[in-house]
Design a protein that fits this description.
Its cofactor is Zn(2+). It contains 13 helices and nine strands. It has 320 residues and is of the alpha/beta class. Strands 3-2-1-7-8-9 form a six-stranded parallel sheet, sandwiched between helices. Adenosine-5-diphosphoribose binds next to loops.
Length: 320
């Protein structure tokens, strides 16, 4: 009986992979929904695995968090931003290269069959792999925005702060603050010079009362990532609304599908659209049609080989 079961399991396994190969061969509009599992081979830990970020934070216990997930909670971030900034360099995408999974997503795009990659990752490795049709559902480090003047800057602008574990400040606000400080200084000196030369209206000179505002001018320039407790950008709903009528295959890679609303993509597309789940560990709360359980890089490389598709080489010249 056990030999028969093993044989059946093997048959199922072969059929399952073969079904996935056939679906990919016929697909024209693939949505790839990806998570942290496609970046672990690049050296970026995922979140919920036994060796993931949350387990590490729990074990280290050095960030004074009620629970590890609070590292990405907007309330904690607002109250004590120094906690996140003392940690952010560990996940900052400055020194990682795309995995075979990232390159596989790009190969779908190069073949003209990628409708969109909805990624939950903030490491921007999809863009590094040259993927154009990617939506970073949870934002990313690629830009940062000032809390006070809303100026948006490239992520590189705040990289020195992140790498030196400091709170990034807004350059625009800093410049405005320096100009204001100089102007107030000038007004003070003019006042001293003008003393006794006739009455000066109080309002023109009385700038001491608002000097306290200056300290708020050193506003924080925050990476444009989505924290727990924040809404996703409306682009997520808008694009999913458009894509749901076009998609003909959903491929889910490297995610535990634990975080809404991205995990709900599976229920937002028509049931007629087949779903392939590629992950190191199975999921029980959803039932994708085909589950390929194992290392994602190995599985997508195997699928590409079966399809006769070449992955862009690691050093491929990315889209200009
Ligand atoms: N191959 C295949 N799967 C892998 C690999 C790998 N090499 N490495 C890890 N995985 C799987 C893990 O087994 C796990 O099921 O990837 C999944 C990653 O799940 P999570 O750690 O929960 O990460 P993710 O699903 O992306 O989390 C979603 O939660 O914390 C928030 O905002 C954060 O975007 C993140 C969101």
């Amino acid at each position: 009986l056990s030999r028969m079961l093993r044989h059946r399991q093997k048959l199922l396994h072969i059929n399952t992979v073969q079904d996935a190969v056939n679906l990919l061969r016929d697909a024209k509009k693939v949505i790839v929904l990806s998570g942290a599992g496609i970046s672990t081979s690049c050296g970026i830990p995922d979140f919920r695995s036994a060796s993931g970020l949350y387990a590490q934070l729990q074990a280290e216990g050095k960030y004074d968090l009620d629970e590890p997930q609070d590292m990405f909670d907007i309330r904690v971030f607002r109250e004590r931003p120094e906690i996140f900034y003392s940690f952010a360099k560990q996940i900052y995408p400055s020194n990682f290269t795309p995995s075979p999974c990232h390159r596989w997503i790009r190969s779908l795009e190069d073949r003209g069959i990628l409708l969109r990659n909805y990624t939950q990752n903030i490491d921007t490795l999809e863009s590094s792999a040259g993927v154009k049709r990617v939506l970073q559902c949870h934002g990313s480090f690629s830009t940062a925005s000032c809390l006070r003047c809303k100026t948006r800057v490239p992520g590189k602008t705040i990289e020195p702060y992140i790498m030196s574990q400091q709170i990034p400040f807004c350059g625009t606000c800093r410049q405005a603050r320096d100009v204001e400080i100089a102007a107030r200084q000038e007004r003070k000196e003019a006042k001293k010079r003008g003393k006794g030369k006739g009455k000066v209206k109080a309002t023109e000179w009385d700038d001491d009362s608002d000097s306290s505002e200056i300290s708020e001018w050193g506003a924080e320039s925050r990476p444009d990532i989505v924290f727990f407790g924040q809404a996703l950008d409306s682009e997520f709903d808008e694009l999913l609304f458009l894509d749901r009528d076009e998609v003909d295959l959903l491929v889910i890679i490297g995610t535990s599908l634990k975080v809404a609303p991205v995990a709900e993509v599976l229920t937002h597309i028509p049931h007629s659209v087949p779903q392939i789940f590629i992950n190191l560990t199975p999921v029980n709360h959803v039932k994708p049609d085909i589950c390929l359980i194992g290392d994602a890089d190995s599985i997508v490389t195997y699928l590409s080989h079966q399809l006769g598709w070449d992955l862009p080489p690691p050093t491929a010249v990315l889209h200009s």
